[in-house]
Structures are given as C-alpha cells and as structure tokens.
Amino acid sequence: MKTVRVAAALIIDGNRVMATQRNYGDFAGGWEFPGGKIEQGETPEEALEREIKEELGLGIRSIEFFKNVRYQYETFFLDMDCFTCEIESGKLELHDHSSMKWLDSRSLYDVEWLPADVGIIEDLKIRLAG
Ligand SMILES: Nc1nc2c([nH]c(=O)n2[C@H]2C[C@H](O)[C@@H](COP(=O)(O)OP(=O)(O)OP(=O)(O)O)O2)c(=O)[nH]1
C-alpha cells in the first residue's frame, strides 16, 4: 500500500485556526487544513510554503512543527506533518477550496473533518484555549 506524505498548515490568528473545505477529489466537501503532498527533494516546510501560496495565495511565517498524524485510508497510508504558522503576506484566494472558516476552541468540532484530522483536533483545542 502506498504511503502519501503530506504537510498541513494550522494557520493561527490569535485564538483561531483556519479550516478549509475541499472542492475536488474523493474528499470533496470535507474540511481540512490547507496543504498537500510533499514532492521529491522538498522539506515538509518547503512543501507547506509552496502549497499555501498555490492554494490560498498567502505567504506564511513562524512555521513550527505541531504534530505528525498517521492514518490508514482504504487505498493509501497517510503520513502527515502538521505545522502551526501565521499569515505573513497576501490576500486570501480560494483555489482548491469552496469555503474557509476561522474556528476557535469551542467551534473546532462544528465542521466535518477528514478522518485523519480528528487525531489533531483535541491537541489543537488545548493549544487554542491556552
Ligand atoms: N492538505 C490536507 N490533506 C489532508 C488532510 N487530512 C487528510 O486526510 N488529507 C489527505 C487528503 C489527500 O489524500 C492528501 C493530501 O493530498 P492533496 O490532494 O491535498 O495534495 P496535493 O495538493 O499535492 O494535490 P494533488 O495535486 O495530488 O491533487 O492528504 C488535511 O488536513 N490537509
């Protein structure tokens, strides 16, 4: 079974995190953290910067490792590094997503997360509340 390595951004603004809803592929309609597959020769941080620019038109800063999540999907194994970061530059554009929400610790469970993401939400909740 193939392993897919992904970098995901927990974009923080004060006590809130950005959640985006996918508009394409098998997981369309599900909520996730923006990001994508790490390409050959890239570090996870480089992949993250590239993906956030491509998907959202944003530059990011203060990239810090938060948590690694592993999840067995039906057709692949996901190995995802999650990083906290902040917006540095740009104006939000949604290229791969149909909507975006800023969620705080009380509203984190209001959206339907992709299955692998459920493993991050409780840790993130503590972080946002703290
Ligand atoms: N970006 C992101 N992907 C996630 C999350 N949770 C989760 O299970 N995934 C899965 C969905 C996808 O199968 C995979 C990410 O791949 P992707 O399709 O976004 O990657 P990509 O932008 O390089 O896209 P593509 O060109 O291959 O279509 O990880 C998450 O929070 N963020």
TrEMBL record:
Cofactor dependency: Mg(2+)
Catalytic function, reaction form: 8-oxo-dGTP + H2O = 8-oxo-dGMP + diphosphate + H(+)
Domain Nudix hydrolase: 2-128
Top-level EC class as recorded in UniProt: hydrolase
Keyword Hydrolase in record: yes
Record's keyword terms, sorted: DNA damage, DNA repair, DNA replication, Hydrolase, Magnesium, Metal-binding, Mutator protein
EC id: 3.6.1.55
SUPFAM superfamilies xref list: Nudix (SSF55811)
A single MF term (Gene Ontology): 8-oxo-7,8-dihydroguanosine triphosphate pyrophosphatase activity
Keyword Magnesium annotated: yes
Any one biological process term the GO annotation gives: DNA repair
InterPro entries reported for this sequence: MutT-like, Nudix_hydrolase, NUDIX_hydrolase-like_dom_sf, NUDIX_hydrolase_CS, NUDIX_hydrolase_dom
Matches recorded under PANTHER family: 8-OXO-DGTP DIPHOSPHATASE, NUDIX HYDROLASE FAMILY PROTEIN
Family to which this protein belongs: Belongs to the Nudix hydrolase family.
Protein name in UniProt: 8-oxo-dGTP diphosphatase
